[in-house]
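Write out this protein's structure.
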Amino acid sequence: QVQLVESGGGSVPPGGSLRLSCVGSRFPFKNYAMNWYRQTPGNQRELVAAISSLNRTRYADSVKGRFTISRDNAKKTVDLQMTNLKPQDTAVYYCHTEDIQGNYWGRGTQVTVSS
């Protein structure tokens, strides 16, 4: 069973930075695309950033230029470096991957941006 565990959330003032990390286990990590989603109360989860198995990346327009996704296949981790954080970035952030058998999610980590 695929396992994803996030860490690194917290509270920062506007303009601050945070680095989220997700460690994967029980699947061939290097062969999987990895994603970060976020969700606020009452809303659907939205894709924030994605990285393919070939290290191709893409971002939501709202975070381009501020967030960077990266992966370390040796450590089986995918990170999300977030800079110049804004109050509207406040959300629970989830690590995600998928295969033909389904979607896999971590439990999420809270990010709060507030003065």
